[in-house]
Design goal:
The structure holds 3 protein chains of 3 kinds. Chain A is α/β, with parallel strands linked by helices. Helix content of chain A is 40%, strand content 18%. Chain A is globular and about 60 Å long. Chain A starts with a helix and ends in a 29-residue tail after the last helix. Chain B is 72% helix and 0% strand. Classes of the chains: A alpha/beta, B mainly alpha, C mainly alpha.
Chain lengths: 341, 366, 393
C-alpha cells in the first residue's frame, strides 16, 4: 500500500510535470496559444516598472512589454507581469516561467553567455552613480572614504562599488539588504551616507521615494557602463528577432517622426521606409512570422521610443531625466535602429 | 460559647477582603513585591498615557491626505492604513475585482469558525471544505461568467498568506502521516529514508528550503517544463511542513499504549487496517493540539516568502510603504500587520489550549 | 487461511512470507527513491549543460569582489568566495551563540515571573509571552530595524548617554580598553579564574557529599572571578586608557561598533525565543509537584534556596529537551538576517549565488552548515540531558 502510494505520488509528480506546457524553442507559438505574453519586471522602480495602488503597472520596461505583446498578438494588454527580485530574474527566464525579461538588466558578457541568455538590444543606456544627502556637502565620489553605502545585492552594482573604492584606495561600509524597499528605507532613514545604483534608478528613487527630493544630490561620477535591455532565452532565434525588431521599430518610428498621434496619417505616407515599417508595403511581418501590422500595433500601443521615454522618465515626469545617451544618434545619442527592410 | 458566636458574626477586617484585600494579597504580599509593584506602576504611568495619546488621541483617522499626519505633534497616522488597507490586504489583485478575494476570505473564516465547533466535525465538514476550496480557487482565478481571469502572479496579501499556510498544511498532512509511520516501521530501509528526510528538513532553516524551491526546482525539472513561482513556494512549504507534521504524528503514535497494537494484531488485522481503524484515529486525536500549534508556527513562517518576492501580507504592507506620499509610516503598517497576525495566531492558540483540555477529559472518562 | 500459511510456510511464495514481503516493499521503495533522484539529477545535468551553467566548488578559490560589513576574521573584496563563506559562518555563530545566552537568561526570568505571586508581574510576563509568540519573527525584525534606523538620530547628532558611548542610526559605538599588557593579562586571568571556579566547585561538592560540610561557594567563586583579573590588571601596570570613539568624516574611529543590523537581529531573536523559553520554564517548574516545595519549606529552606536547590534541578529534566529545539530554532531563524542585511551565512551565500549563478553549490553549503550546527547542538544537549537525567536507584 505504502509503496503503491509512493508510486502514485511519483507518477502524479511526473504527470504534473508532463502536462505543464513545454515551450522551449517555441516561445512565439506558446505565447500565441496562451494569448498572453508573460513579462518579468522589477518589484517596483518608478519610471521603469512600478505597480500603483490599484495594481496597474507602468514604466519604460512595462511599456516595452506592451509593445511586444501588441506586435505579436495585436493586443497591447495581453501581458501578464511577474514581479521578480534581482536574484530570481534569470532563473525565471531560464526555466521558462516568463517569456521576456524586461527588468533594467545590464548587458554583460557573462550573462549573455554563461547564463544562457540573449540580450535583444538596449532600451536604456545607463551608468552606476552615487546619491548623497545635500547636507553632507559632498561634491565628488572621491570624498566618500569611510562612508556607509547602501547597495542592493545580486547585482553588478555591488561589485562595481567594491572595485571603485578599491581602485581609489578608499574604504566603505556596505549595507546590503535583500529587498529594494528595505534598502530605500534604510538610506532615507539615514542608515547610510550614500546610495549607489544605476543613475536612472537613483533619479527614480530620489523622485518617487525621497520624502523631499531636493535634499538629495546625485554625484557627477558614473563608475560603470550599464546598458539596460530586454532579455530572452538563448536558442530561440525567432523570438529574439521579434523582440529585437520591436525595439528597432520603436526607435525607427522616432527617427521617422511617427508618433501615436499621427500614426493613421503616416500609414498613407509616400515614404517607402515608413510604409514598409507600418506594413502598408507587405514583407517585414511575414519575415518575422508576425502579422504585417506588427510595428503599427506596437507604436499604437506605446508610441515611438521618444514618447515612451518622455512619458515615463522624461523632463515632465518626477524623474526628469535628460535624453543624453538615450537620444537618437542623429542628435548625438546612441539610439540607432537597424534598417527595417 | 456566646463569645465564639459573636466572633463568627464579625465581619472580616477590611484589609483582607474586597479590592484592598486583593491588592494586599496579590500586589503587596512581601516587601520586595511591594517594591516591584510600585516600580511597575510607575513605569506604566510613564509609558501608557503617551502611547494612548499617540495611538488614539493625537492619531489621524479616516482617509485624507498624508500632510495631516506630518503636522507637528500628530500621533499615529491611521489614515495611511485607511488609504492603503486594500493594497495591504489584497496585494496587487486588480482593484475592481477585490471583492473576490474578500469573499474568499469571508468564506474561509466562516469555514474555520465552523471547524472550531467540534459538534460539526464529520464527513459533511470535509465535503464543505472540498467544495469551498474549489469555489475559492474559481473565485481567485476567474475566467468564467464574465469574471476576468486573474493570474496567480497578481495574488497577494492576506489570501496568499492564508492560502499558502492552509493548503501547505492540508497537503503536507498525509505526507507527514506516511513519514511518521515510515519512521516507526520495522523495515530498516524505509525507516532510514524517513529519518534522513525528517532530520534533514528539520535541520535546515525554511529560508534555504524556499531558496531551493525558488532557484533549484527549475533546474530539477525537464527542459521546457515549468511550474510558476507561487506553486514552487507552495511545494517548498509542503516539503518543509511534512517533516514537522511527521514528528507531531509520531508523538501521537508513541502515546498509544502497546496493548492497542497487540489487540489489533490479535484480531488478525493487517498493517494498514490496524493503522486505519485502530491506531491512527486515536493517535491523530491526541495530535490535534500540537497540530494546531504547528499550524500557528507555519502561518507565521509564511512571511518568509517575502524573501523570494511573493506579495504576502507583510510584503504588501512594505509595498504600500514605497509610496512616497506616505513614506515613513512604517510603524503603522507593521502594527496593522502585527494585529492581523496576532488575531489569527492568538485565536488559534487559545483554541488549541481549549481543545487540549476537552480532549484530555475525553480520555479520562474512559 | 492463517492455518494454511502456517502449514506451507516452508515453501510459501516470497509474497506470502512477511519477511519476504518486507524485503519486496523496501526494494520497491528504494527503487522508487533512486528512480526519483536519477530523474531529478539527469534533468539537472541536462539543464546545467543546456544553460551552460558552471558547476563544482572551484569558485570558492576565486576572488569574491564584494565587501562584507562585519567580520570576525580579516576580509576584503580581494579575498576568495571561500573566505566570504567563512565570514558568513562565523557571523552566524556569533549571533546565534549570543542569542542563545541572552534568550536563556531572559526566558528563564520571564518564565519565573509568570509564576510570581505578584499579580502585576505575572500578568506583564503573560502579556509579553502571548504578544511576542503570536507575531511573525520577520515582522518583529523589520520593526526593530525600523526603530533603530528611523527613530534614532544620525551619526552627527548621536545620543550620548555615557561619555564615549554613542547611540545613532549607525549603531551603538562603545569604547573599549586600549591595547595594553595589563588588559591582556586581565583577560587571561579571567579565563583562568573561570576554570579555577569550576574546579573548586567540584571539590566543594565532593567534600559536602562526604563530610556534609558546606562551602561558601558563591562568595568564593565571586572572589576568584573578580579578584584574579583585578590582580592581573594591577600587576600589568593598572592601565586606565580607553579607546574612545570619535567621529571622523563619515564614521567613528575607535571603540567597538554594534551595527544596527546586528543589534536588531540579536534583539529580535532574543526576545522572540525568550517568549518560548519562558513557557518551557514555566511548565517545567509547574511539573515539579508542589509537595517538593512544601517538603523543602518544612526542612527550613528559604524561598530562593527552594527554587535553586529543589525545584530548578528537577524542572531542568523537563526543560532541557524542548529548550534544545528552541536553541536549534534560534540558530535556524538567524538566517532571517538576509532580510535586514546582517551578513550571516545565508546573506553572504545569497550574494555569492547571485554573482556566480551556482545555486546548487551555494544552497548545498547552507544546508551542510546548518545540519552540522543542528547535529552539534543536539549532541551537546543530549550529552547534557544524560548528565542531569534522573539516576534511578
Amino acid at each position: 500500500m505504502k509503496t503503491k502510494a509512493a508510486l502514485v505520488a511519483a507518477t502524479g509528480f511526473v504527470a504534473i510535470a508532463a502536462t505543464a506546457p513545454a515551450f522551449a524553442g517555441e516561445t512565439l507559438d506558446a505565447i500565441r496559444e496562451r494569448g498572453t505574453l508573460i513579462c518579468g519586471v522589477s518589484t517596483g522602480l518608478s519610471g521603469f516598472s512600478m505597480p500603483d495602488s490599484e495594481g496597474n503597472w507602468s514604466g519604460i520596461d512595462v511599456d516595452f512589454c506592451h509593445a511586444v505583446a501588441a506586435a505579436i498578438l495585436g493586443d497591447s494588454d495581453a501581458v501578464e507581469f511577474v514581479a521578480l527580485t534581482a536574484q530570481q530574474r534569470f532563473t525565471a527566464l531560464q526555466s521558462g516561467e516568463i517569456d521576456l525579461l524586461s527588468r533594467n538588466t545590464t548587458w554583460t558578457l557573462t550573462r549573455d553567455t554563461a547564463l544562457g541568455l540573449n540580450f535583444a538590444g538596449v532600451t536604456f543606456y545607463d551608468g552606476q552613480g552615487f546619491m548623497v544627502p545635500k547636507e553632507l556637502g559632498v561634491t565628488s565620489a572621491m570624498e566618500l572614504n569611510g562612508a556607509a553605502v547602501c547597495v542592493q545585492p545580486g547585482t553588478t552594482t555591488e561589485l562595481n562599488v567594491a572595485d571603485f573604492f578599491r581602485a581609489n584606495g578608499m574604504e566603505f561600509e556596505p549595507v546590503v539588504i535583500e529587498s529594494l524597499e528595505e534598502v530605500n528605507a534604510a538610506y532615507f532613514a539615514g542608515r547610510c551616507d550614500v546610495y549607489t545604483t544605476d543613475a536612472s534608478g537613483l533619479a527614480s528613487i530620489r523622485a518617487t521615494v525621497a520624502p523631499n527630493p531636493d535634499d538629495h544630490t546625485i554625484l557627477p561620477e558614473l563608475i560603470s557602463k550599464e546598458p539596460l535591455g530586454p532579455v530572452v532565452r538563448h536558442g530561440d532565434d525567432e523570438f529574439l528577432d521579434v523582440v529585437k525588431w520591436t525595439l528597432y521599430a520603436l526607435i525607427e518610428a522616432e527617427e521617422k517622426g511617427i508618433t501615436q498621434a499621427n500614426l493613421e496619417e503616416m500609414r498613407a505616407s509616400e515614404d517607402p521606409t515608413i510604409s514598409r515599417l507600418l506594413g502598408t508595403t507587405a514583407g517585414n511581418g511575414e519575415a518575422l512570422g508576425l502579422s504585417e501590422d506588427w510595428a503599427y500595433n506596437a507604436i499604437a500601443a506605446v508610441g515611438n521610443y521618444g514618447e515612451m521615454f518622455e512619458r515615463n522618465v522624461g523632463a515632465d515626469t518626477p524623474l526628469a531625466l535628460e535624453r543624453g545617451l538615450n537620444d537618437l544618434w542623429t542628435r548625438g545619442g546612441l539610439m540607432y535602429a537597424m534598417p527595417a527592410r | 460559647m456566646t463569645q465564639e458566636h459573636m466572633h463568627a458574626a464579625e465581619r472580616p477586617p477590611a484589609l483582607s477582603v474586597g479590592p484592598l484585600g486583593w491588592a494586599r494579597a496579590n500586589l503587596f504580599n512581601t516587601w520586595y513585591n511591594s517594591v516591584i509593584t510600585l516600580v511597575i506602576l510607575w513605569a506604566v504611568i510613564q509609558a501608557v498615557p503617551p502611547l494612548i495619546n499617540w495611538a488614539f488621541i493625537d492619531a489621524v483617522w479616516g482617509g485624507g491626505e498624508p500632510d495631516a499626519c506630518r503636522v507637528e505633534g500628530a500621533g499615529a497616522c491611521w489614515s495611511f492604513i485607511g488609504e492603503k488597507y486594500r493594497l495591504i490586504l489584497f496585494g496587487l489583485y486588480p482593484f475592481a475585482e477585490q471583492w473576490r478575494p474578500l469573499l474568499v476570505m469571508v468564506l474561509f473564516i466562516g469555514l474555520v469558525v465552523a471547524t472550531m465547533r467540534r459538534l460539526l466535525w464529520g464527513r459533511s465538514l470535509i465535503a464543505a471544505w472540498g467544495v469551498s476550496t474549489v469555489v475559492m480557487f474559481a473565485l481567485m482565478y476567474g475566467g468564467f461568467l464574465g469574471l476576468p481571469f486573474v493570474a496567480n502572479s497578481y495574488w497577494g496579501g492576506l489570501p496568499l498568506t492564508v492560502g499558502l499556510s492552509t493548503i501547505g498544511l492540508v497537503v503536507a498532512f498525509p505526507l507527514g502521516i506516511i513519514l511518521a509511520l515510515g519512521r516507526r516501521s520495522n523495515m530498516p530501509a524505509v525507516r532510514t529514508l524517513c529519518v534522513v528526510y525528517i532530520e534533514l528538513i528539520r535541520g535546515v532553516p525554511l529560508i534555504t528550503v524556499l531558496f531551493m524551491a525558488s532557484v533549484l526546482f527549475p533546474l530539477f525539472l525537464p527542459t521546457g517544463v515549468t511550474i510558476d513561482k507561487l506553486l514552487r513556494a507552495q511545494v517548498g512549504l509542503i516539503l518543509f511542513a511534512a517533516a514537522y507534521l511527521a514528528e507531531v504524528v509520531r508523538g501521537g503514535l508513541q502515546a498509544i499504549p502497546k496493548g492497542q497494537f497487540e489487540a489489533a494484531d490479535s484480531l488478525g488485522l493487517g498493517y494498514w487496517s490496524k493503522m486505519r481503524l485502530i491506531i491512527l484515529p486515536q493517535a491523530l486525536r491526541i495530535s490535534i493540539p500540537p497540530l494546531v500549534n504547528t499550524f500557528i508556527g507555519f502561518f507565521k513562517d509564511t512571511t518568509l516568502v517575502i524573501i523570494i518576492g511573493l506579495f504576502d501580507l507583510l510584503n504588501a504592507a512594505k509595498t504600500a510603504l514605497t509610496d512616497r506620499a506616505w513614506a515613513g509610516f512604517y510603524m503603522e503598517a507593521y502594527l496593522f500587520c502585527a494585529i492581523i497576525y496576532f488575531a489569527f495566531c492568538f485565536t488559534m492558540s487559545r483554541y488549541s489550549q481549549n481543545l487540549e483540555r476537552k480532549l484530555r477529559t475525553g480520555h479520562a472518562r474512559r | 487461511m492463517a492455518v494454511d500459511t502456517l502449514h506451507v510456510s516452508d515453501r510459501a511464495s516470497l509474497w506470502n512470507d512477511p519477511r519476504g514481503r518486507a524485503i519486496i516493499y523496501q526494494v520497491v521503495v528504494i527503487g522508487g527513491v533512486v528512480l526519483l533522484f536519477w530523474y531529478l539529477i539527469s534533468n539537472t545535468m541536462a539543464n546545467l549543460e543546456r544553460q551552460q551553467i558552471a558547476s563544482g566548488y572551484g569558485f570558492l578559490d576565486r576572488e569574491a569582489g564584494f565587501e562584507i560589513s562585519e567580520s570576525l576574521v580579516s576580509y576584503s573584496a580581494a579575498s576568495t568566495y571561500g573566505r566570504a563563506f567563512l565570514v558568513g559562518i562565523l557571523n552566524t555563530f556569533k549571533v546565534s551563540i549570543l542569542g542563545i545566552v541572552f534568550a536563556t537568561i531572559l526566558g528563564t526570568l520571564i518564565g519565573i515571573a509568570r509564576l510570581s505571586s505578584n499579580w502585576l508581574v505575572a500578568k506583564l510576563a503573560m502579556t509579553y509571552v502571548e504578544t511576542l509568540r503570536n507575531i511573525p519573527l520577520l515582522l518583529q525584525l523589520f520593526l526593530w530595524y525600523g526603530v533603530i534606523t528611523v527613530s534614532l538620530p544620525g551619526p552627527r547628532d548621536p545620543i550620548n548617554p555615557l561619555p564615549g558611548v554613542f547611540l545613532s542610526n549607525r549603531g551603538f559605538i562603545i569604547p573599549v580598553p586600549e591595547a595594553h599588557l595589563g588588559y591582556t593579562m586581565a583577560a587571561v586571568a579571567l579565563l583562568v579564574a573561570i576554570v579555577l571556579t569550576v574546579v573548586v566547585n567540584r571539590w566543594a561538592k565532593a567534600r559536602q557529599a562526604v563530610t556534609g560540610q558546606p562551602f561558601p561557594m558563591l562568595a568564593a567563586g565571586a572572589g576568584i572571578i573578580v579578584g584574579l583579573p583585578l590582580l592581573a590588571w594591577l600587576a600589568g601596570g593598572a592601565p586606565v586608557g580607553f579607546d574612545v570613539p570619535e567621529l571622523q568624516g563619515f564614521r567613528y574611529v575607535g571603540g567597538v561598533p554594534i551595527r544596527p543590523e546586528f543589534a536588531a537581529l540579536l534583539f529580535g531573536l532574543t526576545t522572540y525565543t525568550a517568549s518560548f523559553i519562558a513557557e518551557i520554564v514555566r511548565s517545567g517548574i509547574q511539573a515539579v509537584s508542589y509537595g517538593q516545595t512544601e517538603a523543602a519549606a518544612a526542612l527550613g529552606l528559604r524561598k530562593g534556596m527552594i527554587l535553586r536547590l529543589i525545584v530548578l534541578p528537577q524542572a531542568m529534566r523537563v526543560i532541557i529537551p524542548p529548550t534544545t529545539s528552541q536553541y536549534l530554532n534560534l540558530t535556524k531563524n538567524s538566517s532571517l538576517a538576509v532580510a535586514i542585511g546582517y551578513p550571516d551565512l545565508v546573506h553572504v551565500g545569497n550574494t555569492t549565488l547571485n554573482q556566480t549563478g551556482q545555486a546548487i553549490e551555494a544552497i548545498s553549503i547552507f544546508m551542510a552548515v546548518y545540519l552540522g550546527i543542528s547535529l552539534g547542538i543536539s549532541f551537546f544537549m543530549n550529552w547534557y540531558n544524560r548528565h542531569i537525567a534522573l539516576v534511578e536507584r
